[in-house]
């Protein structure tokens, strides 16, 4: 089965081509169909901002490493006992690349994000088909296209970020980083009560995209004094909620200063393994009583992510589409940063749902 | 000082004119200006859905009962110590008709809605001027007109209702009752993460207004089967959040049926003193684990109400305006139900803020 | 396999012996051991306050209805794939009689209490053995005896009740009903921050038991004026948390009066199918802003129930023990009300854990 | 009026006596009694762990700096309008050294800890009398002695720490630092649902005191491997709640490692102005999803602190008592660390309440 994979470990941005990480299309064995499993013919599979981290060996270095966990498709086959959520062959679906075992202590305590068997069904989905446990598969609403539907998973991340903000309607919100998670978080926070909604992002195209999708203000942290701007926007109060979606050590340093007293700051990205942010306990936890937290993975958020998909404007996040065999070019485009999101068309499937 | 007041106790809807409650304009003595007080020349003062309840004697029967607690205006005078929130003569303001003492046990426990001295500064604001403690007064943002600003108080109620829903983004929401609180709650829930947002309301004009302001669906509980409709809209799940803004004993009976398992149901209106809703504990609290709660008054919600005012569309809620001396006609118009909100112009003040 | 069962539908309290419900010991077929299942040789299985409701046909009327869902025992056999929580043959265990499917919408939304397949593994545990899915089985700590361990499930109910109270340390707490859930809730709330902890219970022995286990005060609702007593105990403030563990229509009527403004009232028992409690919306949801909610089943609470078992004093709740073949007498004793809890010894197993 | 004060800025621990901070008793003018004020004849005033920070100039360097904010006493005089909480001359009281204005934005948003006028009534209470606004004064329960009552304020800090933990009953809890706040937090968390309650503290006497007051385990971070011990105590899960009450840069570094996945870590002390804790975002906020927060001051916690005072064992925290004129010796004793708490007897008042 044709599958997009990391074929050499290394930074995809390495200027030295001999050391650079490589992406290719390789043949993987078919994934077995267990009695409670669902085989999905993949329509679209999007490149995630974490995929380059996998190329760098964040989660392991044995190549080839199959990629792809943001996908949509059509049910092709069902295991004999895969009947608990009423799926039928032909259903348009998307899903969660993680299966939660239900048996380990975190699963039983309601914290599936820490499931001890979380990787058991994590199979590469940038492929012709993917086979998941039925608990991972969600039927798409009729008014969501397969192309938009492949963003269910990153939308679930934005929903979980929103959940952890504990926002109250009217709170002032700033988001740092205008990549796909930042743009989705922006739309989700726009519909979840944010005021003075501000994106901090150095790339002009991404700031403009944010303004088209509900940002009240944007800040260029390179050319502008973000502290002064934050002060103006919030009339000296600071932001009640600050979300980092940049993953950038340089960018995160200033976020505690623009947070309001009592604010919540969410670290919603991946950070370099060895990066330690200096945290002044007296200024930020004692005097300002900030709350800092983060997001790893997003169980429990999928049903609501599915519910809000029709309310989001996903056209600009799905405008750059490549065929499976052109995956190398797709990743080059992703690295170029021209589009916040690049999508792989894994099969050419006629979509009975809303066209995008 | 000219003040709108209940001049005879009785239902404003009583067909018997001799028993009907009466509204008039009477002369009240000037309210004293204490050292921490602020005198406001009132621009607009809106009729509240609870005003007819006052006419019926809900909170007392000694006439005249001065009315008006949804107001905006301009600071006319400041007590010598009224300096804690930087107010200046000439500032455009709105506010909270209740002052919280800060000293009683509820105030010190963070539950000012139960303040034991809550009535100390509740002065009629449908008048030429009103004098409040500085803690009750909020400066309006430049982009909010005095006409829209008089809706700060009912907006704070809608914000507090939203707070008590504990909504998570994507939750399905139904609102029963399309009067002013229902319409404001609809707009607030629209911007606070609601999906499948549905208004249940028998008056066609109010349903149409809701559709113009963000409702996904409307239900006419008279001509439609609301249970079947709710089932269709939520694909059999029920609504995660149900808000009653009707205050109607007949309307509230069916709301528990359309609530999803685990849903929150907010009783956000005033109800007849002696009305007892039959509550099946087995069906609704045991098997469905619903949470039922209500809203009395709304401390803590004003700063965020002020923050969201510019995001609301308040034109239709402020289109029916009467002069102070025409208060009787204004109340007749209110009772007619033609407009969800009727506003009294207490003084003719040139508004330096955003025009509406 | 010998199993305690309802053999005739009817009230166990019916004075007419010919109409009275009957409990007997019958032979049931062995439960199959699936690949992820665990067979437990049952040591102790306690009678639950809901068992008489089952005898009355609350959940169905086809006899025999096998009973027993509060149990402890020793692992006798493991399915070939039952390895996710490290269980071994011989382990001392207790568990949850419900299996949550992990696949339906409620399971995936984090509300397993509403799992659509909740009954799939609900098998009678007042039997020689019970076979459960591994996700239902918890290893007992070394310092908890098998006799005490059979109370894991009702303890999980008390934990979930505690969770839903949202208690803050120092809150005043009243519990209505001194049966096993009431007594366990009392101990759990004692260790969870309650002050002025009060049990309302007409049976003197149960009030005395509560005083031995941490109640500050007890009220006999028959001979005392519970409103006056509540007022004295709380210095006129009312209770911040009120828990009903009585299930009694007569008892629940007065609980809203003794609740403080802003209090949470938990309905933590089963109620007659057709009982409708009259709820004055104006007094209790509008003016007092009470929050009413309930508890059906208790997923997510088991890990913490296991953690607190060693901190509870369970001797008095496990002092009345009958052999399996004497189940009829055991239920007679349960109905007599002499002991708040009656336990069936299903097998005579030497306990390597802490003796009780 | 005789008042204990910092008379020279400097570290009280400075080995160089000429540079060392100094504490003395000086004459301060009487504090004016405003119309809503209450004059209290002080019985006891305890030395706070933050007092040496004041000697070092944390909040200012103009000497003399009057000290004392943990106090109890008897009402001596009432302003003419100080009637809102029913105080009478002769009442036994304690209180909050901070007055919240009720008018600034934080006060009106329900975050009085950030009140912009918080210092207006912060008057030295290690003195013959102190005069506070009535909103700062709480009547002591009859069963709390004046000696114990002077710990109301630090108890409120422990209560607020407990509030911010969001503990669920059964959570595993570790506390770092066995000074007065650590010891009070230990007792409060003991009564608020903690299991595996562990104190980390290098001083043996403080560990032993903790074991006498409800700690399940203690760890000496100097002689023991705290990571291995934490692992044993929590069976590899880590602590669900970690509280720092040490304020020590060295001690706080290891706390994130012993926290469970998803845990809450509270920084509940003061930290050096310039201390920056290195925070690995990937390990602790991304992979472990920890929540970090802190506590500045504790509005809203006083009513519940008052409620739990009778449930705490305060004898060991009030065993070292000095007369006002011996304040220098009292501070020497405080610095010696022999007792976790040292108390100044400001007046010799016969206590009508429970003797200690």
From TrEMBL, chains A, B, C, D:
Keywords: Metal-binding, Oxidoreductase, Zinc. It comes from the Bacteria. The keyword Magnesium does not apply. SMART domains: PKS_ER. Coiled coil: none annotated. The keyword Transmembrane helix does not apply. InterPro entries: ADH-like_C (IPR013149), ADH-like_N (IPR013154), ADH_Zn_CS (IPR002328), ER (IPR020843), GroES-like_sf (IPR011032), NAD(P)-bd_dom_sf (IPR036291), Zn_alcohol_dh (IPR050129). Residues 10-344 form the Enoyl reductase (ER) domain. Its cofactor is Zn(2+). PROSITE patterns: ADH_ZINC. Pfam families: ADH_N (PF08240), ADH_zinc_N (PF00107). GO terms for molecular function: oxidoreductase activity; zinc ion binding. Belongs to the zinc-containing alcohol dehydrogenase family. PANTHER family: L-THREONINE 3-DEHYDROGENASE. This is L-iditol 2-dehydrogenase.
